[in-house]
Amino acid sequence: MKLLLTIAGFDPTSGAGVSSDCLTAYSLGVYPMAVTSAITVQNHSGVFTCEDLPEDLVFEQLDKLLDDYHFEGIKIGMLGKTLSLTRLAEKLEPLNIPIIWDPVLFATDGYPLTEYTMNQSSSDPWSDLLSITSLLTPNQPEYLRLKDRLDHIPYLLKGGHDSNPDYAIDVYYPQGNVSPHESLQFYKKKRMKAPYSHGTGCTLSTAITAYLIQGEPMTLAIKKAKDYLFKGLVDSVRFEKGHGAIRK
């Protein structure tokens, strides 16, 4: 069974973060392993606090897994506020495998989860990790924060936050901001009222990674991942007290 590595924070509800990534990966036929970067305190109401794990502990998790296992793809999610992206890039670059990065800057309720401004060895802490990223998957607010860094960086701009009342349209820029118009790929889905949508970005990016691991080209991996997410939103898991989650 092929292996997927997720590097992200821990959400105790399993709606997002490493536990959600593991559920998604396994349901799609790849075996997940995880490096946890931070611990959140949250429930159905939102995120109450977030504590980054010590950087050396994060990299010790990563080193021990890389010592023993061969991964076919990596999904990166929330990395916290102080983790060195340069150091992470140096660890991952030699692997030469697909790396999908969902740049989780804020929780759905607006709680800040990532701000790379401290303890960085590079003047632009994003550049080293972006340079080895196969696909970045920002939503609209994340894109506005990162757009000046996305020349030649492939990215999927998610349309969930745009103003179209009828459709959510994701746009794949295979060469980043310099991509000519004719090479863009559009993924259109009818907008729906999903009662449980926490973790859509985590689910989508992990599903893309899983399909790439199984040999799909990027454009088809994105399409299949969007179909998988849409199905999980429609046929969601229901809990007591009106709570629920995306079905993985």
- Sheet with the most strands? 6 strands, mixed
Total E-strand runs: 11
| Element-by-element helix/strand order | EHEEHEHEHEHEEEHHEE
Structural class comes to: alpha/beta
The span between the termini is 19 Å
Rg is 17 Å
Parts with pLDDT < 50 across at least 5 consecutive residues: 117-122
Q: How many helical stretches?
A: 7
What's the oligomerization state?
single chain
Describe the structure.
The protein has 248 residues and is of the alpha/beta class. Helix content is 30%, strand content 23%. The protein has helices spanning 17-27, 55-68, 85-92, 127-130, 140-146, 200-213, 218-234; strands spanning 3-10, 31-43, 46-52, 73-76, 99-101, 135-136, 155-157, 167-173, 185-190, 237-238, 244-245. The strands form three sheets. A six-stranded mixed sheet has the order 3-2-1-4-5-6. It has a three-stranded antiparallel sheet with strand order 7-8-9, with helices on one face. Helix 1 (17-27) crosses helix 6 (200-213) and helix 6 crosses helix 7.
What's the gist of this structure?
The chain has seven helices and eleven strands. It has 248 residues and is α/β, with parallel strands linked by helices.
